[in-house]
Specification:
Elements: E1 3-4, E2 21-22, H1 28-37, H2 42-58, H3 72-81, E3 82-83, E4 88-94, E5 100-106, E6 117-125, E7 130-133, E8 137-138, E9 156-157, H4 160-174, E10 198-201, H5 211-221, E11 234-238, H6 245-252, E12 255-259, H7 265-271, H8 280-288, E13 299-305, H9 313-322, E14 328-334, H10 348-360, H11 391-397
Parallel strand pairs: 2-3, 7-10, 10-11, 11-12, 12-13, 13-14
Antiparallel strand pairs: 1-4, 4-5, 5-6, 6-7, 8-9
Helix pairs in contact: 1-2, 4-5, 9-10
This protein binds S-adenosyl-L-homocysteine and iron/sulfur cluster (SF4).
Length: 399
């Protein structure tokens, strides 16, 4: 049975000051420019922005008063103009297997009258890594027929700050910032210093339909003087937004995962309807030429196992044939059911037979153990109740 934590006393709810600008999610030049606008000289703005960057991303500070190397007067001015936002935690659930799921609520401090939005973020601890599954959109414009998120219309894109804030809040809750307290002993994977070692953009939404914000957030997350996550430990998953795949490799340089799920266009058109726009051949060509792809930096192909739909031996053989010239890893995902879903997970012996064919072709194809099913945190189960905004509302967000 899963448990829901009492977070009443967690002192985590720090609604941003109305009208103040959130510093989380600004690039280094943007941060310096903000300080310049306050009247600091270029040199001072550069120096102060470095200090702020360190306080925000290394120390996890949310209070300007704690920034001991910044003069008191300036601290007060900063506190007037800016905020270091964290989302409100609506709920925090812990699965029997240790997976944690948060429902975060975001308000835009610059548009305090706009309705808040809610997204889910999941932490999956394993013996050798701790992975945070981050959302990029509230809902999704796509309608993959086996995915719960796909039944929630797109409400809006998340800003770079909101994408990062999921990482910051999770780090805070898991005790990853200096001086933080761990919720349980032994949370840190062996040989690591932090609970969160990897990020996957596999939460709600299609990250490549929110490319600029995702790119900005991931470049900040991988900044060596900040959150310092190696780009090899950040994976972006896409359903196949082909024109954005090359820029992702060139400009962001993170690991790529493709939600493949079918090896024939007629079936993929149904399961992953974006296939009608960018069919398999174009998708695989984009993978072959993904900047930086090599045997040391393989593309992960995700394949959800749907009973009697895509799980035959012939499908497995075709999968191997299709990926022949691509440095690839294959991830078989048992289908996770959700209320109203029309599919069933393949039987275990079918999954094994499928995996055997893939293994014999030379792929290590781990079957992804479903994690956090009891708290509805497994792949494709995420969804929040946030209602779609009107066009007028969305325009006001300028997202
Ligand atoms: N929109 C992106 C990122 C989401 S990643 C994408 O589609 O790639 C979430 C992963 O879980 C995707 O591979 C998705 O296809 C898969 N998934 C969706 N619904 C699922 C379900 N019910 N069971 C198992 N995997 C699912
Ligand atoms: Fe959107 Fe990905 Fe779900 Fe498809 S699988 S509906 S792209 S979140």
């Amino acid at each position: 049975m899963s448990i829901a934590l009492d977070i009443d006393h967690a002192n985590t709810v720090r609604p941003p000051l109305s009208g103040a600008r959130d510093l989380v999610g600004l690039s280094r030049p943007e941060l310096a420019a903000q300080l310049g606008e306050m009247g600091l000289s270029e040199r001072d703005a550069r120096m102060r922005s470095k200090q702020l960057w360190n306080w925000i991303y290394v120390n996890g500070a949310t209070d300007f008063d704690a920034m001991s190397n910044i003069a008191k007067g300036l601290r007060a001015e900063l506190a007037q103009a800016f905020t270091i936002g964290r989302p409100e935690i609506v709920s925090e659930q812990v699965s029997v297997d240790g997976t944690r799921k948060w429902l975060f609520r975001f308000r835009d401090p610059q548009h305090p009258n706009m309705p808040p939005v809610e997204v889910e973020t999941v932490y999956i601890p394993e013996s050798d890594r701790g992975t945070l599954c981050v959302s990029s959109q509230v809902g999704c414009t796509l309608t993959c027929s086996f995915c719960h998120t796909g039944t929630q219309k797109l409400v809006r894109n998340l800003s770079a700050g909101e994408i990062l804030a999921q990482v910051m809040m999770a780090r805070e809750r898991l005790g990853d910032f200096p001086g933080g307290s761990r919720p349980i002993d032994g949370l840190v994977p062996s040989g690591e210093t932090r609970a969160i070692t990897n990020i996957v953009m596999m939460g709600m939404g299609e990250p490549l339909y929110n490319y600029e914000n995702v790119k900005k957030a991931l470049l900040i997350a991988s900044d060596g003087e900040g959150l310092s996550l190696s780009k090899r430990r950040i994976t972006l998953s896409t359903s196949g937004v082909v024109p954005q795949i090359e820029p992702t490799g060139r400009e962001v340089g993170v690991m790529l995962a493709i939600s493949l799920h079918a090896v024939r266009d007629d079936l993929r058109d149904v399961l992953v309807p974006i296939n009608k726009k960018w069919p398999l051949e174009q998708l695989l060509e984009a993978c072959r030429s993904y900047p930086g792809v090599s045997n040391a930096k393989r593309i992960t192909f995700e394949y959800v196992m749907l009973k009697d739909i895509n799980d035959s031996d012939a499908d497995a053989r075709e999968l191997v044939r299709l990926l022949a010239k691509i440095p690839a890893k294959i991830n078989l995902i048992p289908f996770n059911p959700w209320p109203g879903s029309n599919y069933q997970c393949s039987d275990w012996d079918r999954i094994e037979a499928f995996a055997d064919i893939v293994n014999r072709a030379g792929y290590a194809s781990p079957v992804r153990t479903p994690r956090g099913r009891d708290i509805f945190a497994a792949c494709g189960q995420l969804k929040s109740e946030t209602e779609r905004l009107t066009k007028k509302d969305r325009d006001a967000f300028m997202l």
